[in-house]
Amino acid sequence: MKKFDKNHFWVEVSGNTAKIGLTSFKLSDLGTLNFVNLPEVGTNITKGEAFGSYESSKTTGDFIAPFTAKVTKVNQTLLSDPSSFDMMSADEAILELDSVNETDLNDLMTQESYDTYLESL
């Protein structure tokens, strides 16, 4: 089951591992991606802190970690060709992680809660 955060990430957890991706809302909001910076494998990311950055045709910003974990895989296609972001599926992960802090996951939203959140924007 996917969970969501207010920075428009989806999270899919299996045991102590997780995949993280961008929701369709975030994908459409960014427009054409010109540059992306993601952490290297082995990097620890911390809930509430920036773990990467982006520059798009509409905006620039940071990716903020929805939980604390260790990066085990990075979407290399996105790094080598940021424009591929436009064709990225809302089900495609940008990172895979392990050593997920399970307590942090309690703060994530269900699909229903996320849909309600989107309506409030």
Which descriptors would you attach to this protein?
six-stranded antiparallel β-sheet; OB fold (Dihydrolipoamide Acetyltransferase, E2P); alpha+beta; 121 residues; single chain
Q: How would you characterize the overall build of this protein?
A:
By secondary structure, the protein is of the alpha+beta class. The chain has a single domain, classed as OB fold (Dihydrolipoamide Acetyltransferase, E2P) (Beta Barrel), CATH 2.40.50. The protein is 21% helix and 38% strand. The chain is built from four helices and nine strands, in the order βββαβββββαβαα. The chain has a six-stranded antiparallel beta sheet with strand order 1-2-3-9-8-5. A hairpin with a 4-residue loop joins β1 and β2. The longest helix is centred in the last third of the chain and has 9 residues. It is globular and about 35 Å long. The two termini are 24 Å apart. The model has no long low-confidence stretch (mean pLDDT 91).
